[in-house]
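dumping the sequnces here before i forget
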Amino acid sequence: MNGVFAKRRQHLLALKAMRDGQSSHLARSAPCPRCGETVPRRELVQARHVCPKCGYHYPIGAYHRLSLLLDAGSFRELDERLTSRDPFHFPGYAGKLDESRARTGLSEAVVTAVGAVEGRKTAVGVLDSRFFMGSMSAAVGEKVTRLIEYAGKNKLPLILFSASGGARMQEGILSLMQMAKTAAALERFSRKGGFYISVLTDPTTGGVTASFASLGDIILAEPGALVGFAGPRVIQQTIGQTLPEGFQRAEYLEEHGFVDAVVPRAQMRETLARLLKLHGKGEKP
Amino acid sequence: MSGRTAAERVALARHPGRPGTADYIAALCTDFFEQKGDRQCREDPAILGGVALFHGRPVTVLGHRKGKNLEENLKCNFGMPGPEGYRKARRMMEQAEKFRRPIFTFLDTPGAYPGVEAEARGQGEAIARNLAVMSALTVPVICVVTGEGNSGGALAIGVGNTVLMLENAVYSVLSPEGFASILWKDAARAEEACGIMKLTAEDLLAAGVIDGILPEPEGGAHTAPQSVFRTVDEALCRALEGWKRQSGSFLAAQRYKKFRAMGDPAGKRERA
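..and the predicted 3d for all of it:
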């Protein structure tokens, strides 16, 4: 690898990861939403944004997550500028898109990249819930599909971190069709022997759950992540009863047979690297 | 075509007298044998399907079933399938592939059922798997949106080589009530939602999501079902005629390309 460029890429990712941290709730010390404990920011950063008292996994930005996962200098972003173009001229949508881009520094709700995980070259996509709740716009579906196709063409393993409220309402039917598009691309990838790890993070719901997030050869989840097709509010309204404790959490999914393992953030990188090794994928050059 | 508003079309699409999957199968096919059960857990009547003869040729037909009266509505959960319904549909489609039968699907659902058991048994996984399996089938798949096609619950049986819509049918990412509830936290604004959701057949044809619109009688499909059956029969024959000489790999590739092209926001390749 060319040292100068690798250093520059690493610097860029570090800057973007830092920006992720600053534009989120982690900008200042605040009580943990689960246990109420106020943990000093420095300590929280050191713990990869996992509450040291109760193990609550804070949502983290896409670049931040990539910086925790990828080897230094290996990050190269794909389709960086691809973004929604408001296909139905939905009232107020264009303005909200601009606002979200400015606030998060993201061009869309997913970042796709190639990089190395403990020396194994991998195609990685990370959804970011700060951008329209990580919802599936046509651009998100397109970026994910291009990443899958890129992985297929270059014989790379694929890792997708999901975090999504579901469909992008403002893009209507085209949002819905991204489910078919991404699922079809994964089916092709799979039939050619491609290896895909889906990682479910808090929250993953709706059209993302009902497409690429559920189609991994291996499915992992972060502790406590909410994962489901219908959101808890909708279910509660439909059945008119309170929902069981722990319903739709990562551990619940594991118990019901939809997740291979619940993996704490601190062990995620090592687990993914081991899975790549076990499948003989992304061989070290 | 009559100049109805989107909200008026939603009302027609949901009309209780509107022909449903059971009516289409009875009118268009002979020798129908209903297949039940997902072979894992239970039978879900919200999906109706099986094998039948269409103009003397074996086909797999399936679709959402809402039921014709309150008793049937309750049994069919108002046409909202659980994961078992989608897995049953997948079983039927995989058999169609094995026995080289074309597949017809009829879409008419308020959405996949949002319930505790449905979630516990993997509603999301069931829908996702159907999308993946359907995308790669090597037999012709022809889908008709006959009523309301809402959300992933409709799309889960809607990945076709040809996708058609009846004139007053609607197809959308979510029900107008759900849409209003998510966007404005107010389900009562559903009618307003209809106006901006782009869910009519004309809207979907313009967006490149469907391939054709099937005309209905002036007052809607329920006023003269026989003429609608004739229209759908002719459309299915036409579509089937177009696909029957194509190879399996051509059919799978055509379906892939069709959905692959939907909503490429750049309109051109762009590499960072």
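Chain A has a mean pLDDT of 93.
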